[in-house]
Amino acid sequence: MRLLFAEDEEDLNRILTAKLKEEGYSVDSCLNGRDALDCLEAAPYDGAVLDVMMPSLDGFALLKRMREKGIRTPVLFLTARDSTEDKVRGLDLGAADYMVKPFSLAELMARVRALTRQSAGVSSSTLTAADLTLDTASHRVTRAGKLIDLSAKEYALLSYMLHHKNSVLTRQQIEDHIWNFDYEGGTNVVDVYISYLRKKIDDGHPARLIRTVRGIGYRLSDEAPEGGSP
Amino acid sequence: MKKGRSIRFKTALWSTAVLVLTVGLSFLAVRFASGLVLLGINRDVLLDAVEKNVRMIRFNESRERPAANFYLEYATGYLEIDEDFLNEMGGVTAALYDADGTLLYGEDPLARRADRLPFGETRIHEMKSGGETFILYDRRIELAQAGNLWLRGMVSETASLAPLSAITRLSLVLLPILILLAVLLLHFVTDRMLSPLKKVEETARDIAAGDRLDRRIEGVGGRDEVGQLAGTFNQMMDRLEESFERERRFTSDASHELRTPASVIMAQTEYTLEKERSAAEYREALEVVARQGKRMSALINDMLDYSRMDLSAERYPLAPLDLSALVRETAGALAPVGESPREYRSEIEDGLYAEGNEGLLTQLLQNLISNAYRYGDPAGRITVRLKKEAGRPVLSVEDDGPGIPKEEQEKIFERFYRGDASRSVQGTGLGLALVKKIAEIHGAAVELESEMGKGSCFRIIFPVFEKKSAF
To answer: Which domains does chain B have, with CATH numbers?
Structure first.
């Protein structure tokens, strides 16, 4: 899951970026609205957390510009303005959610999870495929009841694939959603992480969930594989 | 509504009472006066009639019977009575008596009623008989040859007052009707005059009931008392609304400004306490908390200063003070501030005075200087100047920093406004608002000259100082 985070207060920006990264999101953070718009135009995001009062382009104006440009990324506003008019205005502009400062970190994370679920059309915090479950709130991943230990990137990759279960995801799509602009790794980074993930989830289980779609990318599916045995 | 009715009711009651009393008293006075007039006329008629009759009586010594007129034998001759002798004229009856009081000639009823009254001298007197009051006029007629005769005239006083009682009866019917009409008219007029008060009351009630400070009394114009009341009321509401609005905006601004550092502290602590962190991470977290705490505290101090000045400027008394000494002292104390190597200069002209408040002016200069340190070029120059221009002391603080864009030059004096460039700089957003406020208290003008890339110069232009005897 790739997030855009824009907040002009440097301390707050740093802390929240660190927290979101800890949660397994790949995060691009900006200190003003114009930079945020540039990022949003350049890459696909699963959600955007925007401060309202920002220099150069405030959150409301930014959201308006996004929608004008056809960027459908769901937006959560973070703001010190608590008047009803402001909330109504933000939500009417098309924001998915609204949080007034000061807030609890735990609540913000829950709302960010809801935001990304919404973008993937998922309605619960627990994602499943066959006997594999992933709890986005507690970050617990189990297969057939057995706890699986994943690194942050592996978790992010699995979570992204579960959010788009049964759809074919291209390597580019996966890279765009899991790695942020800071990453300048090799081209086969997706293949490497897929292989890590396969070892941890599919090894020792008769039904393989992560499948390679030749020439395109990967698919996480709990449907019966077409064309017999792998 | 109840109050409105009661004042109307009271007005109606009192005016009715006054009306009834006035009408009653004037009626009585008129009645009394016309009684007197009528009685006077009555008396004149009586005297006139009797005196006329006196001339109708003549005594003849001769024994010869008079030819035409009515006559009586009396004493040694005849008593001649002209045929014009009026027994009754205008309600006056008259009769002639001899000296002993024996009726010689005249009206019978008069004789019967009054014959017991003895004659004494020529006089007017009253007599009551059968519930009626009469006035009698006894006139002595002196006959040289045959002693005295008496002519007595009488008129009923009661009868003469008859028109009065008719008027009284009419009045007793008419006056109450008139009073009733007057009261109704009065009620109507009071109602019309008091109806604007109802509007005043309705508006006041509306304001009291809800948070409707924007309500005003409308449609009550005019220069009468109610119009003035409405005008004063509206003015009062303007001022109230303005100060409530100012307070509301300030509270909202203040809470907004405090929210950001509060959320940083909350997020930082929550994040750090989630799990075991390294010593470096703990140190960083504490630094963030300390920094944001300091920011909150500075914000609270500035806000208190600002609101104190905003709400009660009169709390700061102005007195003549040596501006040159004050600026030199403050500028000198602030000189070593700022860790970066800067050039700091002051050019202070001696002997400049102003009506001012020492504490406030020190704060003004401090704010300007720390503003220059914050936004100026870290390796640049700051110049504090005090000199006389066109008779006015002018204090200026100049930096050679990046300057302020034209469109922001007005806004930077608004509280909590911080330009894009200054976002990263720690400030409360109140420093320049305070400068403006303090200048206002001193009747001084604030000017800003700024050019992008060249720097900014804030100028405080004090009013001309008029030397008092104290200096």
So the answer is: 2-164 (3.30.450), 225-309 (1.10.287.130), 316-461 (3.30.565.10)
